[in-house]
Amino acid sequence: MLKILKALLPAILLVSLLSLTFLIPQKEELQASSMSMELPLRFDLPGWYGIRKQESPEERRTLAPDTLFSKADYRLLYSDEWNKEMPDAHVSLVFSGNDMNQSIHRPELCLPGQGHLNLTSSVTDIKLENGKEINLTRLVSFRRNEETPDKKLHYIHFYTFVGKGHICHSHMQRVLTDISDRVLQGKVQRWAYFQVGTYWSPHIGVSQEDAEKMLLQLTARLLPRIINWKEMEN
User: Which of 185, 192, 219, 234 could be a cystine partner for 33, CB 3.0 to 4.6 Å?
Assistant: First the structure.
């Protein structure tokens, strides 16, 4: 019996902790994320050209009204590593409202609904241009092309969450941090979901290694410019 209780203890503690959220007031002033909504556009990010993108009507319709969006596509202008045109990198920032669960959807749940197959995840370490080291969740998948089934496109995405002085690469890590802040400090923060992604395929001359390296280079250059790192040190 004792062994069974020990085995169940982590699950019991987690459920007990999650249940505390029902005791927390749902209408509190949101603390701004340490992530800026202002993505560098045009030639503001050295080596890249950024174009503002609008969130889709479906995103606006399905997420809470107080959700905020900032999106851009980035094209690699030049690189000593590639002598070919690379696909655009898609950057998406989604800022939660008061109810995190109604503002940001996990890509592990959303991407399969968009036709992505064989979705797998892992954790990637990255060193940013400012010397900071963080973790990102890495997702790989593919989508079938109905017109040319033998030429399917493969996709790779990286994401993380940025709150007020917090960076969390996983959904569960963010949930536990959010609960701790609400229960112990009475803080409700506006989390920013950062995602960068692109596609690759042999028939367009781009490998998974090419796509992944390009995304990580963009992330290493972009995040130091849009995160308030002084808040991360407090």
Answer: 192
